[in-house]
Amino acid sequence: MSNEQPTLTPTSTLDWGRAGFLALNAGSSSLKVALFSAYNDEALVTGQVERIGPGGSVVLKDRTGAALPLAPGDLSNHDGALKLVIATIKQAHPDLQLAAVGHRVVHGGPDFRAPAVVDDEVLDKLEALSPFAPLHQPHNIAGIRTARAAFPG
């Protein structure tokens, strides 16, 4: 393994020993999440939010399976649920450097059949596909928007 630090952009570098990848899947009433170490394939955090809205619940666990103390938050909608999850992850891993966020999208249409870097143009195209998966696509897009706001760049 090389000691060189790979660059994500010409102006940024990561400490790969503290870097991680966040995987998200926002559904119609749930949010599944996993945070993986970039150094190895270890899951640092796994969990989910169920029944987003009144009466929702959150379970986030560390690599040993112990429940993480939850940051304060609001489970009334997907945006609030993801913000609570992100705040809890940041609380549990304050030195984390996020290398990337991935989000499952239910419908990519003819343009997206493989992973893609999501910029405004890609997000607009995905949003236009919402009529084909109205129960899931809007929540997927909301999750992407919230993650982009929480982790710009």
Q: How many beta-strand segments?
A: 7
Number of helices: 3
Main sheet summary: 5 strands, mixed
Radius of gyration: 16 Å
Q: What class would the helix/strand composition place it in?
A: alpha+beta
- Give the overall form: globular
Average pLDDT works out at: 86
Low-confidence stretches: 1-11
The SSE order reads: EEEEEEHEHH
- Measured distance between first and last alpha carbons: 26 Å
Q: What's the arrangement of strands in the largest beta sheet?
A: 6-5-4-3-7
Tell me about this structure.
This protein is an alpha+beta fold. 25% of the residues lie in helices and 27% in strands. It contains three helices and seven strands. The strands form two sheets. It has a five-stranded mixed β-sheet with strand order 6-5-4-3-7. Strands 1-2 form a two-stranded antiparallel ribbon. A hairpin with a 5-residue loop joins strand 4 (31-37) and strand 5. Residues 1-11 have low confidence and may be disordered.
Outline:
With 153 residues, this protein is α+β, with helices and mostly antiparallel strands.
Indicate the topology.
Elements: E1 7-9, E2 12-13, E3 19-26, E4 31-37, E5 43-50, E6 57-62, H1 78-92, E7 97-103, H2 120-128, H3 137-150
Parallel strand pairs: 3-7
Antiparallel strand pairs: 1-2, 3-4, 4-5, 5-6
Q: What descriptive keywords fit this protein?
A:
153 residues, alpha+beta, two-stranded antiparallel ribbon, 3 helices, 25% helix, globular, disordered N terminus
